[in-house]
Amino acid sequence: MPISVLLVDDEQLVRAGLRAILESQPDIRVTGEAADGASVVPLVRRLRPDVVAMDVRMPLMDGIEATRAVLRAVPDPPRILVVTTFENDEYVYEALRAGADGFLLKRARPAEIVHAVRLAAEGESLLFPASVRSLAAARGGNARAREAMERAALTEREADVLRLMTRGLSNAEIAGRLFIGAETVKTHVSAVLAKLGARDRTQAVIAAYESGFVAPG
Questions:
Q1: Where are the beta strands (DSSP E) in 79-128?
Q2: How many Å apart are CA 55 and CA 217, to the nearest integer?
Q3: 111 partner at 20 to 30 Å CA-CA among 22, 26, 36, 142?
């Protein structure tokens, strides 16, 4: 089945450009468009997209609030990529903390946009790990995040897996580094997410940096 994508951006030209790029691929189809975050929840309920590519800055409801609304209102929600002009935008970080799975740069090359959508749909790798690392690293030493990490009480192997997740490694790559099976890695990743109360790898990595579990650099 092709990856279904919902495009949300207040600029029609941006939506048209993304549609042209994504629909040039045989395994991706754009199933809908919206001009503001306020329209996202009903469209997601009706279209059931695999991925939502959503502008982070919109006039009525921005990508942060729209992300929260989708995750709050939709069972088994889609993957959410926020679309942004600047990767170090505070809005991007807040959208990631709200539950977005990653972000797309509007200036990205077509191949990078396609790759990001595919990775988001698969959910087994971190998008733009260096950028997420730089966004989160500046917020290290968060006492609440540190307490949550301590309560999680990760096992030694789970801690190893989380460290490799912060570097953007996929399950297969982690399995190769730790000399264990890919299914075992998947089990450890699921345990890490559950213990941290994280929706996905992005939120787990943010928790790792904010708590000081891993150091920036």
A1: 79-84, 102-105
A2: 29
A3: 36
Q: Give the mean model confidence (pLDDT) for residues 59-88.
A: 91
Q: Are residues 160 and 118 in the same domain?
A: no
Q: If 0-12 CB within 10 Å is exposed, 13-18 middle and 19+ buried, where does residue 147 land? A: exposed
State how far the Cα of 80 lies from the Cα of 100, in Å rounded to an integer: 5
Report whether pLDDT(130) > 90: no
On whether residue 39 sits in a domain, the answer given is yes
d(Cα 134, Cα 174) in Å, to the nearest integer? 22
Whether residues 120 and 38 share a domain: the answer is yes
128 pLDDT band (50/70/90 cuts)?
A: low
For residue 211, the SS3 value is: coil
Segment (H or E) for 147: helix 143-152
How many structural domains is the chain composed of? Answer: 2
User: Between these two residues, 112 and 139, which has the higher pLDDT value?
Assistant: 112
The CATH number of the domain holding residue 115 is: 3.40.50.2300
Each residue of 83-95: b (16+ CB within 10 Å) or e? bbeebebebbbbb
